[in-house]
Automatic annotation (TrEMBL):
GO terms for cellular component: cytoplasm. It comes from Palleronia sediminis. It comes from the Bacteria. Transmembrane segments: none annotated. This is Leucyl aminopeptidase family protein. GO terms for biological process: proteolysis. The lineage of its organism: Bacteria, Pseudomonadati, Pseudomonadota, Alphaproteobacteria, Rhodobacterales. PROSITE patterns: CYTOSOL_AP.
Length: 473
């Protein structure tokens, strides 16, 4: 994919013709019509344009060519219901360089500029003869941090591209290659523990979940580290590159989207890219247990009792609850480094989707101040998140008696909460722990978010990190 649509227009491009793109609310339309050139006001009237939400109108010059454009934001309710509305204008604008005009400022201006960039994302790797399409470009608006927005857009694009790639081309080895490419680009270090070496390295759950796959898709633990000073932050991402469900085989209807079960790994790599590209002052570690939950004679079984890295025993009551197993070993490893902050991100439970749907990213955090910082950042950068509780009375549900923990409590209640409680048992030692149970998929086209892989929670974390990794409140 051509990355140029994910950046603002260069100085050379901006030195040529730059047309104005005026953004209007419905309430501001009359004032605009009263001050605009008469031909523009007449053209708007002839086309029934009154600042309606999502409506783009290209305005002619005196000779019938393109002179400018105007885009409607509608009313306050329209803006509350639809994020990144301006992104919808990009596909309809004539090719060329544009500048934003209008009353946007602060967070609204950042949202508009970022949405315009994200609207340039395309996943056309498998489309025969696909070529990068020429697109309208935007001059970085005055008042935005252009470099940061470009870094955020590139991180989001990385996440989307990894999720969108089908499992035959995005197995554990390819996920490792993506991490190595990212490390090479920013001077990070990568160590990878492969296959049978996982047992010698005391990563038994990662080995157990991934051992049924073919040798070409063998399990591994990817460990990326970057930065020498500042708070220590460890990101742990679920990298189940395809999930058949194991011996508790998923039905076909549930298996169709399982290429996205490495969405947590894609999210933390995208977030890591944002942090490294902007030179964040921290010591960053990214841990990705990369596996395929396959079916063979070597597959782990319902009823097995496995021992985790930290010594806890786990009764396997469903091999389709494998994500929390591989995360458990990675979290235990990460906690041994006593980071100031440890974050796990995973496409973990269907229960989270039932609770909040595909658009909200539920997260768990014990610390009220940190939780509010994440929620406030999510609101500011239009990355909606929702705090969920580590509800202590549910702890007995993950304690089967025959072993220390149960990987799939019976009853079907509070599935996302019990999974979070399970993971927290392996995060002891971190200064603070946050868990995101994301969906990682956009089910239908929306402004700046085409149907397909989607980053969730990463932009909120990126904005909130300065408030998260310091001294606990």
């Amino acid at each position: 994919m051509d990355q140029s649509p994910l950046t603002f227009a260069t100085a050379d491009e901006a030195a040529g013709p730059v047309r104005p793109l005026t953004v209007l609310t419905a309430a501001a339309f009359e004032d605009w019509a009263g001050t605009a050139p008469a031909r523009h006001a007449a053209w708007a009237a002839a086309n029934g344009f009154t600042g309606q939400a999502g409506r783009l109108l290209v305005l002619p010059d005196a000779d019938g060519g393109v002179e400018a454009a105007v885009f409607g934001l509608g009313g306050a309710e329209d803006r509350a219901r639809k994020r990144f509305m301006l992104a919808g204008a990009r596909a309809g604008l004539p090719v060329g360089v544009w500048r934003l005009e209008g009353a946007l400022a602060g967070e609204d201006l950042d949202e508009a500029a970022l949405g315009f960039l994200l609207a340039g994302y395309r996943f056309d790797r498998y489309a025969a003869g696909a070529k990068p399409a020429a697109m309208a470009r935007l001059v970085a608006p005055e008042g935005v941090d252009a470099a940061t927005l470009e870094a955020v857009a590139a991180g989001e694009a990385l996440t989307r591209r990894l999720i969108d790639t089908p499992a035959n081309d995005m197995g554990p080895a390819e996920l490792e290659h993506a991490a190595r490419d990212l490390a090479d680009a920013f001077g990070a270090r990568v160590e990878v523990t492969h296959a049978d070496d996982l047992q010698a390295a005391n990563l038994p759950l990662i080995h157990a979940v991934g051992r049924a796959a073919t040798a070409a898709r063998a399990p591994r633990l990817i460990d990326l580290q970057w930065g020498e000073a500042g708070p220590s932050v460890t990101l742990v991402g679920k990298g189940v590159c395809f999930d058949t469900g194991g011996l508790n085989l998923k039905p076909g209807s549930s298996m169709g989207l399982m290429k996205k079960d490495m969405g947590g790994a894609a999210a933390v790599l995208g977030l890591a890219r944002m942090l490294m590209a902007t030179g964040a002052k921290l010591r960053l570690r990214v841990l990705i247990p990369a596996v395929e939950n396959a079916v063979s004679g070597a597959a782990f079984r319902p009823g097995d009792i496995l021992r985790a890295r930290n010594g806890k025993t786990i009764e396997i009551n469903n091999t389709d609850a494998e994500g929390r197993l591989v995360l458990a070993d990675a979290l235990a490893l990460g906690a041994e480094g006593t980071p100031d902050l440890m974050v796990s991100m995973a496409t973990l439970t269907g229960a989270a989707r039932v609770a909040v749907g595909p658009d909200l990213a539920p997260f768990y955090c014990d610390d009220d101040a940190r939780a509010e910082a994440i929620a406030a950042a999510g609101r500011a950068v239009r990355d909606p998140v929702w705090r969920m509780p580590f509800h202590a009375p549910y702890k007995p549900l993950i304690e089967p008696g025959i072993a220390d923990l149960d990987n799939a409590p019976k009853g079907g209640f509070a599935g996302s909460i019990t999974a979070a409680l399970f993971l927290r048992r392996f995060a002891a030692g971190a200064g603070a722990y946050v868990h995101f149970d994301i969906y990682g998929w956009q089910p239908s086209d929306a402004p700046a978010r085409p149907k397909g892989g989607a980053g969730q929670g990463a932009r909120a974390l990126f904005a909130a990190l300065p408030h998260l990794a310091g001294t606990p409140s």
